Amino acid sequence: MVNKNIVEKAIATIQLNIGELRNAGDIDWNIYTSDIRSRRFIERTLHVIIEACIDIAHHIISDENFREPATYREAFVVLNENGILPDQELPVFEKIAMFRNLLVHYYEKVDDEIVYGIFRNNLPDIERFVGYILEYIENR
Asked: Most exposed: 14, 25, 39, 48, by fewest CB within 10 Å?
């Protein structure tokens, strides 16, 4: 059985960090590209959010004895296979995992436009993920 406390703590981390990004509305493109602290703040905060999403996925997979994913991206596939994430959203969440890998392993190749675009346009994707997880644990 999924430990709600563990999942809720990870969700709180996600929500706190999304709030931090939303409060960083003063970071426009010019500041992002010229101020390394602003750029690193956004990159690291997105990284923390994505890691929390992946942690949630792995916790549910482990506790429910779902098949073990081979990659972070596949963790979202497993949640989809078990009805937690809808088919139409799966590509969005797979891209989130791939973005995490880019941030962590290929930091010298991180495209500023992509990171800034995610910061400005894709936080609702994470909020939808949280919604699907909350729905799942509330219906257990």
From this structure: 25
